[in-house]
Predict the structure.
Amino acid sequence: MSAQRILIYGAGGVGAFFGALLARAGRDVHFVARGTQLDAIRRDGLRVRSSLIGDLHVPRVQVYPRAADAPNIDLALVCVKTYQTDSILDDLAASVQESTIIVTLQNGVESDEVVAARFGWSRVLPAAVYVGATIDEPGVVAHEAPARISFGARPGFDPARLEIVREVLAATGQRIQISDDIQHERWRKLMWNASFNTVSAITMRSPADLLALPETRALVRRLMQEVVDVARAAGIGLVDRDVDDHISWTERAPGMRTSTMVDRSRGRTMEADALIGVIVRKGRERGVPTPASETMYALMKACE
């Protein structure tokens, strides 16, 4: 895989941010976008507003409503919401070649399985992406927190190809890592998302606000602990200290908003199943009680 042609499937906060950086670096980047985002990018290009890396503008962007309209690609970054994954696979197949590598830059711990069921594990890399990036207005990304991507091979993927992907993504100028245990890292990220994203979306309060109130701070801890318990039952080695580490890190990022809180404020569908429903389901499968997660999942579904 030469990775000369890159497809960003989904030009939301994550896809638009990393795609704009790749385009700025001179990579051959193609985007799939929809609705007002597609119209704005076609008309004005992509803008990133950031106090961390500086503002940037990519005035000319190759963007399409479907991957079928794009040329064949070498590297695909799947950046759609998890509940959209099934619906894009037929279209994605139109531009995927036998040698194409597909990286899932999505929340949760299951979306890579959906993609691999269609394209095979020899072509799919699961990832954990960390970035405070949201769409402020069509065509404009607000970047609020440092960015990092970790990805790793699951059985069936040739590990010799990992460094190729790392080199391509390193053109963004952001921190890119190859993980020796990507499932552990994804579950560890899920701890944060299952707690802070869900409670912030229901209460419309920032993570800092949630930690400042003893009752919501305790709820966040309970939700994280349930993720630890379910992960251990699934053979993932999370530890109790991970809870304290997440809370300490969040206390050092007081201005952060969660993506799910932003989604709800703008009337978008929330990723309830990927963020918290997965804990309820896998807890039931393994006989692990998850009462706090069940409550938050029910509340999120009610909000939708």
